[in-house]
Here is the input.
Amino acid sequence: LAGCDSGFGQATARHLDAMGFRVFASVLDPQGAGAQELRRSCSPRLTLLQMDLTKPEDIQRVLQHIQEHTNSTGLWGLVNNAGFNDTIADAELSPLGKFRTCMEVNFFGSLELTKGLLPLLRAAGGRIVTVSSPAGDLPFPCLAAYGASKAALSLLMDTFRSELQPWGVKVSLILPGYYKTGTTCDPAFWNLQKQRLVASLPRELLQAYGEDYLEEINRQFIQFMKVAVEDLSAVVNSITDGLLAANPAVRYYPGQGLGLMYFIHRYLPYFVRDLFLKGFFINPKLPRALRREQHGDAKK
Here is the structure.
């Protein structure tokens, strides 16, 4: 179970441990509050493993540990839950390095971990459950780096689902609504990220969009945080069903409003979907350069 420092991973680790399963839970920081909470609240069956998905040596060390401790018993399930995003901005304003980091954690890390555990999962006819995001299916404003990595992850897991059917391995995707997890709902974190982004932008680009443009995006996102759901049980139950149900769903959609969102996405024109996403999530103001043009046209 990857990504157990907080949020879905930590809650799922506790839940599966309470059900009596032997859980291997990876954390980024073994001395952090999340790891300490798991040590305090879980049974001795749970094993904490330090893993940074951007470091192949960490992944290989975890793979070796799991192989050594499951050779006789087998491995029933893998939950790809680790995720990363620290940028809320237009694609043009998002540094290329942020796209690379999102891909390293959300896509390549999960790919390497999954491929490494497939021999054990194939032998058991087990399960792969992966937490992706609706942002990988729909073009949420200001989430290009995160959304692109989740789109790649979702397609990868759908491919694994098709290819692993002959082996009896079932693969499910979890596409949650907006939940309160880790730093995702900490306004101080996002204010700091916004300041760092502004400081890093080329002067010409910042002039074209305007610092107030980024301020407004950040303000709207922090406002959106207020609708984040604190009760993670719907997601935990979906992950558990993906692991244990005789016929798990291919996709789970825990969270309010997702049915309407996907209906609009699939059946209505693109412009309706774009308007809906701006109204639901973030509706950026006009960039500064376009505001000047409008002002100039009005004078004429």
In short: The first strand starts at residue 24 and ends at 27. The beta strands are 24-27, 47-50, 77-80, 127-131, 170-174, 251-252. The chain has twelve helices and six strands.
